[in-house]
Design goal:
Blueprint (H helix, E strand, L loop, with lengths): L3 H19 L6 H6 L1 E9 L4 H18 L3 E6 L11 E8 L2 H13 L1 H10 L6 E9 L9
Antiparallel strand pairs: 1-3, 1-4, 2-3
Helix pairs in contact: 3-5
C-alpha cells in the first residue's frame, strides 16, 4: 500500500517540525503546560494534490484561525518516493485536547467551510485519507 511511506515520513518529521516552531514562537509557561500539538497528514486522491493545496492556501488556514486552531506550519515531501504527488503534512497547536475537539466540531459545522468544501469537490472528493496524531513536547524539547 502506497500510504505507509508518507505516514512514516510524517512521524520522522515531527521532531524537526516542532523544533522549527519552538524556535520561532515562545508561549507563556502556563499556556505551554496544557497546549497540545496535532500533526495531520493528508493524502489526496489521484490528481487532486493541487486542489488540496489551493483549498488550504485560499480558505482552510483562515478558517482554522477563526476556530482557534493555530497553524504551526505546512509541508510537502521533496521527493516523489516520499509522496510529493499527493501528500500534505501540517501541525496545529491547540490550547488543550478538549479545545481541539471543540475547534474541530465548530470548523466542521461552519457554513463557510461547508461551502468551500462543496464547491472545491464538484469534480470529486479531494482528500483520500487523513492521519491525525496528537503530540506533547518532551521535557527536553525547546517547547515545554
Amino acid at each position: 500500500m502506497r500510504h505507509s511511506l508518507p505516514i512514516a515520513l510524517a512521524i520522522l518529521l515531527a521532531p524537526a517540525l516542532l523544533y522549527a516552531f519552538a524556535t520561532s514562537a515562545k508561549p507563556s509557561a502556563a499556556a505551554a503546560e496544557h497546549r497540545v500539538f496535532e500533526m495531520r497528514t493528508y493524502i489526496a486522491n489521484e490528481g487532486k494534490n493541487e486542489a488540496m493545496n489551493k483549498r488550504f492556501r485560499d480558505h482552510t488556514v483562515k478558517l482554522f484561525a477563526k476556530h482557534g486552531m493555530e497553524s504551526v506550519g505546512y509541508w510537502v515531501p521533496q521527493e516523489e518516493k516520499d509522496g510529493s504527488a499527493n501528500t500534505l503534512v501540517y501541525i496545529l497547536a491547540h490550547k488543550s485536547r478538549d479545545e481541539a475537539k471543540k475547534s474541530w466540531a465548530a470548523f466542521g459545522a461552519d457554513p463557510a467551510w461547508q461551502k468551500v468544501r462543496d464547491e472545491s469537490e464538484k469534480d470529486g472528493k479531494i482528500v483520500n485519507k487523513v492521519i491525525s496524531v496528537y503530540l506533547n513536547p518532551t521535557d527536553y524539547s525547546a517547547i515545554h
